[in-house]
Amino acid sequence: MTKKIFAWITAAALTGIPAVMSSPALAAPPDGLCTKADPARPVISQLPWAQQTLDPAAVWPYSTGAGVLVAVIDSGVDVDHPQLRARGKVRTGEDFFQVGKLRATFDCDSHGTAVAGIIAATPQPGIGFRGLAPGATVLPVRVSERASTDGDANEIDPLVLAQGIRYAADQRAKVINLSMAGHRDDKVVRQAIAYAQARDALVVAAAGNSQGDDDRSLPSFPAAYPGVLGVGAVDIGGSRVSASQIGPYVDLMAPGAEVVGAARRGGHNYYSGTSFAVPFVAATAALVRAAWPQLNAKQVSERLMATATPARGGSAGPAYGAGVVDPYRAVTEGLVKTSPAKMPILAHPPVDQQALDRVATWQQRVSQAWFQVGLAGTAALVILVLAAVVPAGLRRRWRPARSGPLPADRPRDEPPDQLFLLPPPSAER
After folding, report:
1. Does the active-site annotation cover 268?
2. Where is region (Disordered) located (predicted)?
3. Is 352 a catalytic residue?
4. Per residue in 133-155, pLDDT tens?
């Protein structure tokens, strides 16, 4: 039996918003599949907090991700979702989970549809949710049917995953989204990722949701493979989601708590986990690759980290990586690789000795003048004192003066009425 090690990241779903979006042509799964399909979800019209924070509209004048192919290796993508239905937005892709030559344009679970929507959903009037890179093209690659089964993580066959990664690389995907994480290294997956990287694909993977209350570093693959961008999740306040794993593989953070994503059969849903932080970074990579086509995958990765916004918990650490992804800065900032120019050597002007001598002369003259003024003042004060003391001394023939007799009873200062902590004076007893 083939071993299975890569676990999907479970998603938290909240419902209760009325009105289900209608779709004239649902992407029906092949017969016999999706026996426990995710039900239709309502439309969410409000502007989600993640889109408010990252503000994708600000970067669209510079890049929409047009011309960049992003592979979503996941549970499939509902190609008939109204925000993914635009001609050419989602390719047919391929299903590696089922036996036979099947398309990947259907989704039993909404996991892949949510990821694809965060990347490339088309803006629509009256709907706040939209993808970060609406001009990008999505390549769906189906490697599993569901992200979770009755609340338990569903494992992915590493051979199937490796096939899907190689297929995406052969289709010339410039960004590969892997919203999955596992605790063990697997040779076939590692080799498949190296194969994709050799073809200039930037691989972005989830850090994982197994942290809990433990603050030690946990293993996570494929995020820990060389060259892979590992993504953790932050909440609306910018803090790391408690389940988001900590480790040296965490390169960037992105929104991943109660974020809005597209759902199968036309609606939206709320999702949580590092799975849904990954597409925000993958979409930003697509924006950069469209705006800076001369950059290779490694350079795009470096640019994303160099332009990240510092997170609340700090930066350059195993919990937050370089910080929170910033699409606007990643696309618009003019980064250079050259070292800063050296400051010119400070040239001191030649010393004007004549000017210094003149200043010294004036300072000496001012000091002498103040000394003479002080000496004259002291002499005048002595003369005044002598003028007052000498005549009085001559009149008394230099005998000491006498004071008047002291009174027999000296008045005593009476203290005010008070409470004494010690016994009062004898006069008061």
Report:
1. no
2. 399-429
3. no
4. 999 999 999 999 876 433 334 57
